[in-house]
Each structure stands twice: as C-alpha cells, then as structure tokens.
Write a structure and sequence with these properties.
single chain, about 325 residues, mainly alpha, Tetracycline Repressor, domain 2, 2 domains, 15 helices
C-alpha cells in the first residue's frame, strides 16, 4: 500500500471505536496457527492414545494451540510493534486504525484469559503448559523482557512455545497425565532444532532489524555465519533423535528420519553452503531452504512421533 493510500485508510478509520471482525481476525493471523497445531498433533500421536475414542480432546487441543494461544501471541506482538509497523507496514490492523485505540492490547488480554480458561478444562498439566506459553508470549514481545530484541533468547522462546509446549500439550491432553520421558525428549529436541528455523525466518528482515537494533542472529553474526549456526542447530537435535529411535528399538523410524535429515543437509549445502551466493541473495536463499528443508523437518517430527506412539505401554 502506498503512503497516500495508507494515509487515506487511516483517515477513514479515525472515528472507529471498535474493531471489525475482519480486522480482528487479521490481527490474530490464522496463517501462523499451523506450526503449533502440527506440533500438537505430533504430541498427540506420540502419546499412543487412540484418536477415534478421544476426538473431542483432539479438537479442543487444536483450538487451544492455534486459534487461542498462537493467535494471542500474534496480537501481543502486533500491539507492542505498532510504532514500528506504523513506519514499515502501516496497512496492518493496528497502525491503519482498523483495530482502533487500545483494542489490540484488549484482544491480547482477552485471548490470554480465554486460553487459560480453555486449558483448565483439560487438566493441570495442560493448564501449566498453557500458562508457560502465555508467559513466554508476553515476555517475547512486551517490556521489560522484549526477548525478540535478541535472536538467542527470542528464537528460543518462540521455538519452545510453538514446538515443545504444543507437543507436550498434545500428549498430556490425551494421557491426562504427565507424558513419559521419551515424549518429553522429542518435544525438547525438536524445540531446539526449531531455533534454527526461527533464525532462517529472520533473514527476510535483516536490513530493518539492523536499523531498529533488533539483534537477530543474522545481525549479530552476519548472514553467512548465522546460516551455518542455524543449520547446525537444526541438524544436531535430529541426529540425537535418530540415535534415540535406534536405542528405543525403532530402526524403521530411525531410517525414515535419517532420510529426511540427509536431504535437508543436501539442501543446506545447496542454498546456504555457498558463501558468495548466500551473501548475494540471503533473503531468497533462506526462503528457498525454509520452503523445502523445513517441510522435511516437520515430516521427521511426525515420523518420530508415530514411532514413539507405537511404544505406548512398552517399558
């Protein structure tokens, strides 16, 4: 949207007192709900509990992980970034005035309370995981923590919220108990690996982050070193998963995850391994790897979850 069009839109919304449903939904960003919903489903699969007999728990957990907790985190982030967005993306719901006044903050607060109330229905472990996720979402975006200003801390918060806590919730909601160590280990390992995915997402805004002093890893380390660090962080936890699958006597699943990791490494070499090409096109190369390697990463998550789920009741 041009500057003139943005000013016209803001003028048209100047007298608005309440946000429209469309603008509110845009603020909650449904397109971002998929990663935690996928991780939730992986956690549910890893529990080994039948989906058909507990479909209502699955539905409730999907609502919790996506339309509630993830959506809440998006509203929090947009509210606390509203001044920057007014410069860089003035057509977003808050700076455009389509979500007027302090409604962005109100929606974030209401969704936080709704998330906790919904989680309460599914037992103490789900409630505890949700409470941690909500705290991390506020700590990521809001003062005094503003974890997003540092790539090490911010990406860790997002990775563990979107992957680990969602995975844990998926298992806990079906088991109605604390998941066993194998499930928790997978949740932690794939959360660590997701930190690398978050770093690759930061390549799309390096110039703006430098200007605004947002210390993502590409800003701190440079694009080439950050790409290598992200690749290592993504790969090593998956290698540990493979080792664990072998130790748990799940060789077929270990082979499947190994195949996914092998292709990921080839794609890393192709898109991130050539320093000159990476520095010439960091945004494009990171996006191309994200569109390919990340898909293999999440398929590996599902494969390992199915393997561990097959061990339900086996000690």
């Amino acid at each position: 949207m041009s500057a003139t069009a943005s000013q016209t839109a803001r003028s048209a919304n100047a007298d608005r007192r309440f946000p429209s449903l469309v603008a509110s939904l845009e603020l909650l960003k449904p397109i971002t709900w998929f990663p935690p919903m996928w991780a939730f489903m992986c956690g549910a699969v890893s529990s080994g509990v039948s989906f058909l007999d507990h479909w209502y728990l699955i539905l409730g957990g999907v609502i919790l992980s996506g339309p509630l907790v993830c959506a809440m985190s998006q509203a929090i982030n947009d509210w606390h970034d509203r001044h920057v967005d007014a410069i860089n993306e003035p057509d977003r719901p808050i700076p455009s005035g389509r979500v007027p006044g302090r409604w962005g903050l109100y929606i974030a607060g209401i969704w936080s309370v709704l998330s906790l109330a919904w989680a309460f229905l599914f037992g103490p472990w789900v409630l505890a995981a949700t409470a941690v996720g909500i705290f991390m979402a506020w700590a990521y975006s809001a003062p005094p923590f503003r974890l997003k200003l540092n790539g090490w801390y911010g990406n860790t918060a997002v990775a563990f919220s979107y992957e680990g806590l969602a995975w844990f919730t998926g298992a806990a909601i079906l088991l109605q108990a604390l998941p066993d160590l194998r499930v928790i280990l997978l949740a932690v390992l794939y959360s660590i690996g997701a930190h690398g995915i978050m770093t690759l997402n930061d390549f799309k805004s390096v110039a703006g982050d430098r200007e605004m002093d947002v210390r993502t890893l590409p800003v701190q380390l440079g694009e080439d070193r950050a790409a290598r660090v992200a690749s290592i962080i993504m790969t090593v936890p998956q290698l540990v998963v493979i080792g664990l699958l072998v130790a748990w006597q799940l060789p077929i699943y270990a082979m499947i995850v190994s195949a996914f990791v092998f292709v990921q490494v080839l794609l890393m070499i192709r898109y991130l391994g050539n320093r000159e090409d990476l520095l010439a096109n960091p945004k494009r190369n990171a996006a191309l790897y994200n569109a390919t390697g990340t898909t293999l990463y999440v398929l590996g998550m599902l494969a390992s979850a199915i393997g561990v789920g097959s061990l339900a009741g086996v000690t």
